[in-house]
Specification:
Distance between the termini: 60 Å
Number of helices: 16
Largest sheet: none
Order of helices and strands: HHHHHHHHHHHHHHHH
Mean pLDDT: 83
């Protein structure tokens, strides 16, 4: 198998994974989009309620970018206040950590069963048909994760692979590559899943994967920043707030990033350590900013010069 064939096969598997993720998220929004929007719109100034709803919605549709973009659109429509949106943003960041755990538990073998089940449900003349595509895409996500792991194996034999991975081994380059890669493919789920698979295959050091995954947290903020370009000033501030939470957390953690990675590796085996590090980082981010959210809100309003009108009732 030539190098070109290997690279094309890996890219094709990743594209299929992206297709499965997009389809799963789209179908869930189609089936329950109005309820999701209703949940988000009913968030009050209580930051803990917003946090819970943001985390739950992200776990459900497996896309923090979709939840954050929807939140920004509600702010743009004055259905949700800027202050109310902040708790949702923090919850969405925590909700996205489920991806690493799903891959770490090696559940990829369930993919074909959900694909078959989804196909069968889709041809039934009942209400179950509504969930057929959702089930199909859910299975496709796990099936393509397994496909990615298979297609990655030949890379181990390539002399240039170790040189490529070595760039991720330092905290600074690991963070930067994780950020840029995630911003380029517009999916932290793919970046995180890929990092965990590489560790499982012994193709990336666990500490390097931790740096990469934390960088992906920052890279994922680019989706909302792009989506908000055509929205009003307050909606744009929602995306800026999400970026600010992540960049400040990374800057504060950076001096201790290598000891942090080593601690995670002492607490768990390598693959689980990557998932644990991603979860711990986001718990730290969420806890700190939830506690100081009233002050963070005032600072953001002042710096961004926002009027922040109250949300319309309803």
């Amino acid at each position: 198998m030539s190098q070109l064939q290997i690279i094309v096969a890996v890219i094709s598997a990743i594209v299929l994974f992206l297709y499965g993720l997009e389809g799963f998220s789209r179908e869930l929004r189609t089936v329950g989009g109005e309820k999701l929007q209703s949940w988000l719109a009913r968030v009050t100034a209580n930051r803990f309620v917003g946090f819970f709803i943001g985390a739950s919605a992200t776990v459900l549709i497996q896309s923090s970018a979709a939840v954050i973009s929807l939140t920004a659109s509600l702010v743009d429509a004055a259905v949700l206040s800027f202050r109310s949106s902040l708790g949702i943003l923090l919850g969405a960041n925590l909700g996205t950590t489920t991806t690493a755990w799903l891959v770490s538990f090696k559940l990829t073998g369930i993919g074909p069963y959900f694909i078959v089940l989804g196909t069968l449900l889709s041809i039934l003349p009942t209400r179950a048909k509504l969930f057929g595509k959702t089930c199909f895409y859910f299975g496709l996500i796990f099936f393509t994760l397994d496909l990615i792991s298979v297609e990655l194996r030949p890379l181990q034999q390539q002399p240039w692979w170790n040189e490529v991975v070595s760039y991720v081994s330092s905290p600074m380059t690991g963070l930067l590559i994780g950020t840029v890669f995630t911003a380029a493919i517009q999916s932290s789920t793919v970046a995180i899943g890929l990092a965990v698979i590489l560790v499982q295959q012994g193709m990336m050091q666990p500490d390097a994967a931790i740096f990469f995954v934390i960088g992906s947290n920052l890279g994922s903020t680019s989706t909302a920043l792009i989506a908000c370009l055509s929205m009003n000033q307050t909606a744009k501030a929602t995306a800026v707030a999400n970026f600010s939470f992540n960049i400040i957390s990374i800057v504060l953690l950076f001096p201790w990033l290598r000891p942090f990675a080593q601690l995670m590796l002492r607490l768990s085996e390598p693959t689980m350590a990557v998932a644990l590090a991603h979860l711990s980082f986001n718990i730290l981010l969420s806890t700190v900013f939830l506690l100081v959210l009233p002050w963070s809100h005032r600072i953001l309003v002042s710096v961004l010069k926002l009027p922040d009108p109250a949300a319309r009732p309803g």
